[in-house]
Amino acid sequence: MIEIRALDPGNTAETDAVDAVLPLSRLDNVQTYLVAWDGERPVGHAHVAWVGGHVDAPEIQDMYVLPERRGAGIGAALVDAAERLASERGYDRMSLSVSEAGEARRLYERLGYRDAGVPPVRVEGTILIRGEPLEVDETLVYLVKPLGP
Question: How far apart are CA 109 and CA 55, in angstroms?
Fold first, then answer.
């Protein structure tokens, strides 16, 4: 059974255990990391940014599920947990950015996310993730989903 809970950045042992298995790319700028656990093993995560997105809504960022666990509903469960948390905090929408093409976009659209009306953004070149350079070349689209009834 998968359990999803927020990572406590003050709990160094838990953070180190998750970081050893999953790429916590936004650990330097943690707002809320939701971690999916299978028993004692972290199997996926999603970062929720409460401010600073391209749309006036919390943004799911840095979604990741271990490759051998993809297709088992863990990503959808993480999205659901992020949406519930945002709703509990009084937000009426959730947003995210995703590569223009690929399976992740299809997942989000299946979960009710639609075009946010923000022009696509081309990201290319070298970016720094936790101080490490990463080469990127993709076009991101912004999606949004209303929360609640």
Answer: 17
DSSP element (H, E) containing 2: strand 2-6
Residues in contact with 112: Cβ distance below 8 Å, sequence separation at least 6, in sequence order: 145
User: Tokens 């976009």 correspond to what residue?
Assistant: 105
Higher pLDDT pick, 149 / 44: 44
CATH code for position 9:
3.40.630.30
Scanning the structure block, which residue is given the tokens 């999606």? 143
- Domain extent, residue 38, equals 2-146
- What is the Cβ-side half-sphere exposure of residue 126, based on CA atoms within 13 angstroms? 3
Radius of gyration from C-alpha coordinates of the chain: 15
Which pTM does this prediction carry?
Answer: 0.85
For the chain, what is the domain count? 1
